[in-house]
Amino acid sequence: MNKIFGTDGIRCLVNQDPLTVETCLKISKSVAYLLTSNKVKSKRVVISKDTRLSGYLYEPLITAGFVSMGIDVILVGPLPTASLPILIKTLRADIGVMITASHNTYEYNGLKFFDSKGYKLKSDIEKKVENIIFNKKKYSKITNNSPKSGKALRLEDASGRYSEFLKNSLNKNNLIKKFKIVLDCANGATYNVAPNLFWELGHEVVSINSTPNGMNINKNCGAVDVTDLKKNVISKKADIGFAFDGDGDRLIAVDEKGKTIDGDKILALFAKYLEINKNKKLKKIVVSTVMSNLGFENFIKKNLKFDLIRTNVGDINVISAMNRNKSFLGGEQSGHIILSEFSNTGDGILAALKIIEIMSKKNSKTSNIFNLYDELPQIKINIPYDKINDKVRKKINLLSKNKSLNKKNFRFLIRFSGTEPLIRILVEGPKISEVKLLANKLEIKVRSLID
């Protein structure tokens, strides 16, 4: 093990490095030291989690690490990741920790850290954490030798605080119509708060995959698999369906005809219709990643005349670019949607509420309001691997830069996933037949390298 953080915090198989018992304690103590060393009094951290079984392992572990450093811990139980920046602010905390592996199945878990302003840790802080953990001399110096430890308590009204924030994000000048909505909660962190919130707002709610048992999170459901959601939207004759991932920071929608609405389409809708109500300093710049469809890019730049900035994959890259450019809107095709007027991170429930707000205003069917542009054909291939040495990794990275493999008006990407052992291939172009040929060619080349 020579690296701990990936593209979105820390993530791996349960009980494997870097999420062993010993390393978890080191991680929490190192983060505590780096983020609170300049503060004398009232050090506190908010810890949340999703619904996976190993949350029962990592919640007390992370708590112990912070408490040992003299920091008070506020435990809020299963809540979406997006609730943490809100709770950090209202509880005047120094740190927030989300115990989650996001869209992965229950065999995985992970840690997402937030600073006192509700932003995910910057890469320089992550590197400092790694330097401490991998250096016994440095790690020995951060130990708290005082007999005074922190304490831990559970906050019972955390869900209500988050719900009130979401309700307050709605434009009070708009009359919200009542819709029939199917919610797929992925047996994850939104299982309780999302159905209750939409019901309280007066909608007819059909909730599916909202009975977590610790092992069914993201299993053939939620934002990673909308098959069940499509069936329910059509059979229940719903106006729209919303699918969240395990920690609720992603949103994929389904229209009344059962057609999938990905993050690109949601970003396009918001770019066209969403009003920036309060913050006049925000600019009409949209930030997306290299995965976004060229049809989406043409719509943003040519139809709406907005600037579009593309980043590497990972919502932290999107958020960083949004902050630098004072952008009002950013996200990923996978469903991370960041509305900087309201939140510092992706929030699936917030995005769903804003879609409902636009649907109410436009008074039109879901399929009509999302009929914004034609997508170019895309093919995505995931190739799993066990171990890859640096030499092979370098060859694969060079392959992704080989322009001789590309054709005019086509593009392809080959990248290593930052959250699981996968090589991801994306091919996009005007003709599906030629997209398939190029995708097949690239897959054969990559497999030959790893074999």
Keywords:
five-stranded mixed β-sheet, alpha/beta, 451 residues, 18 strands, six-stranded mixed β-sheet
Q: What does it look like?
A:
- There is one protein chain.
- The protein has 451 residues and is α/β, with parallel strands linked by helices.
- Helices cover 36% and strands 21% of the residues.
- It has a 6-stranded mixed beta sheet with strand order 1-5-4-2-3-6, sandwiched between helices. The protein has a 5-stranded mixed beta sheet with strand order 8-7-9-10-11, with helices on both faces. A 4-stranded mixed beta sheet has the order 13-12-14-15, with helices on both faces.
- Helix 1 (21-36) packs across helix 2 (55-68), helix 1 packs across helix 4 and helix 9 (263-273) crosses helix 12 (348-362).
- The longest helix is centred in the last third of the chain and has 19 residues, at 432-450.
- It is globular and about 65 Å long.
- The protein starts with 9 loop residues before the first strand and ends with a helix.
Task: Find the count of extended strands (DSSP E, 2+ residues).
Answer: 18
Percentage of β-strand residues: 15-25%
Query: Residue-averaged pLDDT, rounded?
Result: 94
- In what order do the strands lie side by side in the largest sheet? 1-5-4-2-3-6
> How many helices?
15
Q: Poorly predicted ranges (pLDDT <50, ≥5 residues)? A: none
Distance between the termini: 23 Å
Query: What is the overall shape?
Result: globular
Structural class: alpha/beta
